[in-house]
Amino acid sequence: MKSLKIKNILLCAFAATTLLSSCSDFLDKLPENKVDEEKVDYTNLNNMYQPVSGVYAKLRQRGSHWIVWGATVVRDDDVSTGRIDDQADLVAIDQSYNYNAGFWGTNEAWMVYYDIIKVANAALEALDNYAVNIVSEADGKRYEEYTGEVKFIRAYCYYRLTELFGPVTILRDNKQTDMTRSTVNAVYRYMLSDLEYSMTYLPRIRPNEYTDRIGAVSAFTAEMLAAKVYMEQGNWSEVERLTDDIIGSKKFSLYSDFNNLFKIPGKLCDESLFEMQFTDFGNGSGEVVVSDSWFTFQGPLNDGNISGWGFISPTKAFRQWAAERGETIRATTTFLMAGETTQEGDFIKAPASDVAPDCFNGKAYTPSNQMTEGRTEYGTNNNIRVFRYAEVLLMNAEAKVRQNKDGDISFNLVRKRANAVEYKVTDLKDQSAFRKAVLEERRLEFPFELHRWFDLIRTDTAIEAMSKVGFTITKNDYLYPVPKTEVDLIDNPETFPQNPGYN
User: Fold this and answer.
1) Fewer CB atoms < 10 Å away: N or C end of the chain?
2) How many whole angstroms separate alpha carbon 287 and alpha carbon 281?
3) What SS3 state is found at 288?
4) How far apart are the C-alpha atoms of 275 and 263, rounded to whole Å?
């Protein structure tokens, strides 16, 4: 087997102290398959990054699970499942907001993020064991940076859990037996504590500026996540402060070619703050690091390399809404149309029936001419974009206008890249209209990127928006049910209740 080195966080092996837990792990279980600590040489500080690389590996492996992304994105007003002949519980969410507390897909989301958290907790424990043997300032700095990376990933997982389930258990270490669900604000405080550490000790560089672990998270990645937490809390002054700092660093810029932003040329570009990384070693066979069918799940029902399972489709109403607003560049990239040939020369065959999807997620499209010759798995060698500088700019614009300030500069940078008409505050009748414009811009910029549904919730417009597309929902529909198996296992409705509407 090829020797894997620290040169890239993708290529590092799981650390000896990393958990190799299975998909069936539940929150109450202790970590499985952990190597005995006495077998780890904590005096060998050259191996100190290994537990960190294990966390990235677990994030890559579990965080890219196709059903987790799919179950998250199909709830908004712009996206449908695409196929309706498979995954009946997922289709039921999309078509009727029927949430099954026993649905394996939403249960998987719960397990995915806690799996990663448990690996992160184990990594932090391992780093502390290495720290006992640190004598040099340089090794101390490495310990602080590595700890900051792990704490960011742990905070990211809690962020996703609160989005999906609301109050969740804060698992402070892997020996914890108290499974009480904490309030969302308590989880936010815990996250912000982790992120404060990350912001303090991680380098102030772009992820693509690392020389030893390209693509690792940085202080700016942590600032962005902290800003997202403050945005959920309505703390706009903090959102402005943090995004101003990212912008003011002059480290980041929008990738000029939106069409290639989500394809191979756009991997880890200067717009990137956080990506789940995958790679092909260029042979067409043999070693390859791929997602958990993230790309395949969303690939079109097609022939050849550009094919997949045919799930996740922008609705016709959304496509029409975008067209009415003059979208060109973003629409061409985002909407992978059936029956048409892409700019790169891949033909996407027409729907086989009236109920088959006629459009797919173009942001998951990797052209065949960008794939390694001989590879047939859709999306191979591409990354999942998680945080982008475009969102930093639009968060900054929203933070400013919500404080009755001018947010047009950062707002218009995004519109300019999309070849859209630039706005001035004076072009809109009032600040309320400008706030609406910023939210519409997020809708145009971030389809399929896990933003729209949560934008509707945080702005208290979800019920109204879904009614416009024929759905009657309540606030109970904002959250998924906690896995029934978990509720039954813990069996304490006072400390670990099911979410409202699912008892």
Assistant:
1) N
2) 6
3) strand
4) 13
